[in-house]
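Q: Convert this sequence to structure tokens.
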Amino acid sequence: MGLKNYSRFELDNGMRVLVKPDTTTRMASLCILYCVGSRDEHADKTGLAHLFEHLMFSNCGKDIEFDEIIQSAGGDSNAFTNTDTTQYFDVAPAQHLELLLQLEATRMSGFQVPPKELATQQKVVVEEFSEHYLNNPYGMFSHRLMALAYKKHPYRWAVIGMTPEHIEAATMDDVNAFYSRYYNASNAIMTICGDVDPDQVIGLVKKHFAHLSPGPQNHAVYPQEDPRTEIQMVNYYEDIPEEAIFIALPAPARLEDDFYALDFLTDLLSEGKSSILFRELKKELQIFTSIDCYLTASADPGLIIIEGKLVEGVDIETGEREIMRVIDRYKSELISDRQWAKYRTKNETAYQFSQMGVVNQALNLSYAEWLGKPDLINDELERYLALTKEDIQRVAQQYFRWDIATKMYYRKQVVEK
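A:
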């Protein structure tokens, strides 16, 4: 267990606050995590969680431009939504921390977005949907693959929503209800990292947030999937530049012990140009133009996803067979000493980089608190360093089960002349 280098307190309204000083910088970062993601939507009204990521930057009241105010103080702000949470984060010189607190408190104090701005942001999100998904040759693969891999769990729809029509259909009543349900102090986690004094921070947080009313906490329980027992396979015939393979396999939840070994293995397989799949299948055999393997890393059981685009003239069956051949090697053989040393060092370096900077610290601490294990920021590296070659072989055998895979093939549409 590492040193507990943060302080934690809770306001009377239920908001959790964590402060982690960092004297190596003169900056401060403020992150507010709302305990809501796309899994909290209804199947007939998807995309609201992501829509709110846009709406909240207009939620400071008339003529108050959130981004402009922070940028004028030498700072920056952003946000992201995933299946499980929504996180807003700001960074600025530490002397402007109170400004960040004032702005975030204003956003949390009530829904102030007028109908005209809702319509504007709906249009922005629909355009994003069109650009990244509908008008991208492979853009809808995640929508299709998730819907195929999940039958019960709300992970079956994409974070941006099932369809643009769901986003366009959102009403003021819908967004007001969503805000009231999820955007309140009781359902929020605040982290502050940087050149700050914890005692002063506590006073400032109480000044700006203690008066906010409590609200409902999100303790939703989500329907879980039945165990997979067979292969699922779908072919799509598309006007695409390259044929492609997408494979999904059941994976452990983020806090399960096997997550760490599987995360290590998927990095070994596809992280960077020296990774196994890249080197063997793209560089040496030259049968893929791109190849990737990654975990969804979700709070509930997730997926291992393998995706690859094939070189012209290479058929899908050959590509899939070669993917399976390379990965199956790690079921029957232990990693070589040379690979083990290389990838342990690479894994540790990547993890250390992911913890650098006040923004990353704030994001990671808020997420760890949301998981119920804030000390992950101190001891998670130990979990990776404790892995053995046998752990990697075991998860390869246990999770790369081709007999229960969800497979989706993008084949070139045959155009009749």
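The longest strand covers residues 302-310.
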